[in-house]
């Protein structure tokens, strides 16, 4: 039943190595479905006709916690992945919620506002909120974006975080200060890029930020001095005048790969980490290392790297997840779950052999031999 513990395998089980064979056994070990995704039904004013869908997922970097965001009810749900339990639900009904990210604190998250109040300034409507779940209160608001925030990425090594917006800027912030710490204006001047919906990704050591633009071009900047211009450009491989928006942009954990999904394909590029550390010139990459076909052309499907960067996973059909090897580019397998739609959100756990997918349901996927145990991963 849902109350069963999801053990971490600390009881002398030993740590688990991620391999083709292990990944091929993954199945849904826990599924949290609507109407309430495991929480109490919200009060009447939060009831919506529209079925809530998961629009973002994030793990805490060191604790066994997962946060999910559902759009229609502006729900923020906290799950304990050691126990496989839904712990609490919060609502941000007044402001809306998207792109949630854990900070380093145990019970504090960042997220973007999605609901506009015509009596407020644009920068208030599009503020990024720093929410303490511990006492269900806002710690700080970060105002600067004047249109919808498309993505937030938190540093793993400092209090810095980055955001991108429909206002065609990428901004750097610090959790400790309300004012922005830096801004990259993609609309004009020397930093101009041909771009309407920028995406941003950050490497683990906070050396590099990647900015993705329609058509799939990627520009790499020093995370410390974004205004110095890109030091590396990856040119779009999409042919023709149509420049479709990209649905996901991520850097690998080691920072030597960057991947972008666009129109049913995921393109993976290698970055020379030494070049990144000694930024001298704007180099350009033309060809991808691998191209993976997801067959899904919608613009909201997320992929992720396993924590050891050996594999990449993405939703690939109704209830299905494809797994590819980053050693040689082969498809390792397709995992079939019981979902009724495409898993649009996907996050691999930083510490366990576990990943989560979200759409009309939230699923925790585990190795099939014992799908109630989440095993720690060998370092």
Record keyword descriptors for this entry:
379 residues, 3 helices, 4% helix, single chain, four-stranded antiparallel beta sheet, mainly beta, disordered N terminus
Describe the structure.
This protein has 379 residues and is mainly beta. Helix content is 4%, strand content 41%. The protein contains three helices and 29 strands. The chain has helices spanning 20-24, 122-125, 273-277, and strands at 27-32, 54-59, 65-70, 75-80, 85-91, 98-102, 108-112, 128-132, 137-142, 149-154, 160-165, 169-174, 177-185, 199-202, 208-212, 218-222, 232-234, 248-251, 257-262, 265-270, 283-285, 290-293, 303-305, 311-317, 320-325, 331-336, 345-348, 355-358, 362-366. The chain has a five-stranded mixed β-sheet with strand order 14-15-16-17-21, with no helix packed on it. Strands 1-29-28-27 form a four-stranded antiparallel β-sheet, with no helix packed on it. Strands 2-3-4-5 form a four-stranded antiparallel β-sheet, with no helix packed on it. The longest helix is centred in the N-terminal third of the chain and has 5 residues, at 20-24. The protein starts with 19 loop residues before the first helix and ends in a 13-residue tail after the last strand.
Strand order in space, largest sheet: 14-15-16-17-21
Please report which band the strand proportion falls in: under 5%, 5-15%, 15-25%, 25-35%, 35-45% or over 45%.
Answer: 35-45%
Tell how many strands the DSSP assignment holds. Answer: 29
Low-confidence stretches: 1-14
**Fraction of residues in H or I helices:** under 10%
| Biggest sheet overview | 5 strands, mixed
**N- and C-termini, Cα separation:** 31 Å
Calculate the mean pLDDT score and round it.
Answer: 86
Count of individual helical segments: 3
Instruction: Look at the helices and sheets and give the structural class.
Output: mainly beta
Shape, please? globular
User: Taking Cα atoms only, what radius of gyration do you get, to the nearest Å?
Assistant: 20 Å
